[in-house]
Amino acid sequence: MEPGRGAGPGLWRCARRLLWAASLLCVLLDLQLPGVLASGQAEIENHLEMGRKLLAAGQLAEALSHYHSAVEGDPKNYLTYYKRATIYLAMGKFRSALPDLSKAIELKPDFLAARLQRGTILLKEGNTQEAKRDLEAVLQSDPGHKEAKNQLARGAELEAVTQEAKAAYQRRDYVAAVRFLERVIEISPWDPEAKELRADSHLMLGDHAKAILDLKPAAKLRTDNRAAFLKLSQLYYSLGEHEQSLAQVRECLKLDQDDKACFAHYKQVKKLSKQLESAEEHVRAGRYVEAIEKYNAAMKTEPQVEVYIAKAKARICHCLSKSQRPQEAIEVCTEAHRRDPHNVFVLHDRAEAYILNEEFQRAVEDYQEAKELDGENEEIKEGLERAQKLLKQSKKRDYYKVLGVRRNANKQEILKAYRKLAQQWHPDNFQSEDDKKEAEKKFIDIAAAKEVLTDPDMRQKFDSGEDPLDPENQQGAGGHPHQWPFEFNPFGSGNFHFKFHFN
User: 325's torsion region: left (phi>0), alpha (psi -120 to 50) or beta?
Assistant: First the structure.
């Protein structure tokens, strides 16, 4: 529209004022922009300098923070991306380094150092094709680049050995597969697929421990590797390591709490772990009946995995032995020993049950077998020595047998048996001299048994295989078995006509 046509003078005055204000703003910006830019660049340089100093001091996390600020301040500077990538690599975060290297290459396609670094990382990840493109780009610009040539040769070897490994696995030659995969993983240690394939090969060879060693790092090499975490959990579970199994399946659920396979396994492991932990709490508290119930429940929860059945049987054996139920203990311990012949604790518990059952020869045999398995175990050594003493003692005089009571009899039971036998064999009950002499011998043994078994210290010595009334065990004592120490002879001068007190 031409001036003066269709527009009033007020409108033109307004337009002129706007043009004047815009011109003034441009002048001001031209005056201030260099200062603003200079200030921003100085701050970026300061962050870079601090980053370099901290990096030299080995303070990687602090250095990384400054390089973050430098990248944010100047997102077009390829060098800041490259420097930040080198810190990520120093921290072992190769996945974080790759985007920075790619950005540096995008900003400067002929940046050979970044190309070489990215190609090397890709090769370690097992990504041979992309690694090859970067390494060939370096050689195209610098045909004599030695490191690029070496890495390219490693890439060609990696492809060949990987094919050999896969072929060996396919034909079920797992030993050869493992051998080839060792070289594959040496070249590409960050390749989860190679580690998973070697883990599968170890599993096929029955070596679960080595499979776990490969799966643990493989599970962390992928952003979402629920399958590896689940397999790890299942492996630990099969080995009886339910706590480790629980930890690994939880890692799976952290990635996806709705993962059906992981959640189902989690419920199983959680239930079994709770039962086993509860059982052990009962054992520590001496609540053996409750512990046995929990171990039986655990075997119902997991009736298929042998390691848990063997463990439960071994612990039930222990509980029965501790609660002085020798017949039941011997039966369960024998089954536990059959399931796990190298378990010294089962042999120890069965030996103790044999002692309670007065089968001392078998107790000695179990302790000897346990000692062969663990010769440094002091408890086994002491148990063997005690069982040998008891065996030797059993061939002489057994106070429990004299009174006709079991080894776990309490004081009331001992006194009751003593009173009954003392009344029966008191010499005054017999007429002939021969009968009186026979009764005297029996009565002395009965009184001796009562003396030993009602005295806690003497009973403990006897239970350890030492007869506290045996003259051979006394300093300077000697004579025949009826020469009693400590003025023990209940008949005194031999006059049998006395009033006997049954206390």
Answer: beta
Question: Is residue 485 very low, low, confident or very high in pLDDT (cuts 50, 70, 90)?
Answer: very low
- pLDDT mean across residues, the chain: 85
Cα separation, 367 vs 126, whole angstroms = 55
Nearest-angstrom CA–CA distance, 178 and 331: 44
Cα three-residue angle 26-31-34, rounded to 5 degrees: 115
Average pLDDT over residues 140-148: 94
Whole-angstrom distance, CA of residue 486 vs CA of residue 496: 20
Q: How many CB atoms lie within 10 A of CB 60?
A: 16
- First vs last C-alpha separation in the chain: 137
* Cα–Cα dist 37/29, whole Å: 11
Is this structure's pTM higher than 0.70?
A: no
* Residue environment code for 401-432, b if the CB has 16+ CB neighbours within 10 A, otherwise e: ebbebebebeeeebbebbeebbeebbbeebee
Q: Answer for the pair 119, 151: CB distance below 8 angstroms, yes or no.
A: yes
Q: Determine contact, residues 273/242, Cβ cutoff 8 Å.
A: yes
Tokens (6 digits) for 110: 């002929």
Angle at 447 between CA 441 and CA 448, to 5 degrees: 90
Q: Which of 286, 315, 288, 287 is nearest to 299 (CA)?
A: 315
- List all residues 6 or more positions away from 171 whose beta carbon is below 8 Å from its beta carbon: none
Return the SS3 of 225: coil
Place of tokens 């190298």: 342
pLDDT (average), residues 250-274? 96
Mean pLDDT, range 222-228, rounded to an integer:
89
| CA-angle at 374, arms to 368 and 379, nearest 5° | 75
- Please tell me the number of Cα atoms within 13 Å of 374 on its side-chain side: 19
User: 237 with 269: CB under 8 angstroms?
Assistant: yes
SS3 content of the chain, % helix, strand, coil (to 5): 75, 0, 25
Q: How far apart are CA 160 and CA 76, in angstroms?
A: 40
CA angle 476, 480, 484 (to 5 degrees): 65
Task: Please provide the DSSP assignment of 140-179 as one string.
Answer: HH-TT-HHHHHHHHHHHHHHHHHHHHHHHHHTT-HHHHHH
